[in-house]
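Quick log. Single chain, no ligands specified.
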Amino acid sequence: MFDIKKSARNIMGINVHAISMEQALEFALDKIERKEPCMTATPNAEMIMLAQKDKEFAKILNSCDMLIADGAGIIWAGEQLGYHFPERVAGADFVENLLKKAVEKQISVYFLGGAPKVAMKAVERFREKYGEFPLAGIHDGYFDEKEEIKIIEEIKNRNTEILLVGMGVPKQEKWIYHNKDKLGNVFSIGIGGVFDVMAGVVPRAPKWMQKNRLEWAYRLFKQPQRIHRVMAIPKFMIKIKNWKGSKKK
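-> predicted structure:
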C-alpha cells in the first residue's frame, strides 16, 4: 500500500493527491476492507476557487483522507507548478469503477442526494449494465431535520460501506464532514451531479473531449445555465499564475 500523504500537492492551499485511478481505488478498497471511516472529495478549479473564499470549506477539503484530481484545471495547475499528476481521476469514472468493485466484492452502498427518483434510476441503469451490489439505501437530496436523523441512522444501522452523496458543492462535503462521526465506518464521497449522469439525465462529453480537457465546454453547450460556474476556470488560471509568481518571491 502506497503512502498517500506523500502524494499531496499544494494547489492554492488545498492538498490534492497526485495519484492514478488504480491507486485511488486501491486506497478506497483498503479503507473499506479495514472498516476505517474515510472521507473523499473530488476537487476541480471551481472548488479550489470557492475554498479561497470559504475557509470552512478549505478546512474540510484538507481534512479529507483522499482528494482526487477531478478537473482538467487541476492537471493544468500541476503542470504550471511543476507537479506531476499521473492522470485526471474524474469523479464520474471513479464512482463507476468503485461500484464495479462493489459488485465484485459485494460491498454495500447507500445513495444520498439528487432529485427524487434520479438515484434509483442511476442504480437500475448501473445494475442492468454491470450487475448487482448490495443496496443499503436510497434517499433524494430533499429532507428536513427529522428525516435527516432517520437517514443517518439508516446509513449506520444498515452497515453501509460506501456512501455516495450528491448534493452539490460545498453542501455535500459539509454534510459529510459534520455527520461523519455518526455515520459509522463508511467510505464517503461527495459526487456532485454524478447521479444525473448515471441516470442518463445529463450526458457526458465524448471520450475525445474528455481526453483533450474539453469536458467543461461540452457541459456548457448542453447546460448553458452553467456559464457562471465555467467562468471560475479562467479566474482560476489567472490565480494560479499569480500564486506561482508569489511563491518565487
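The longest helix spans residues 232-248.
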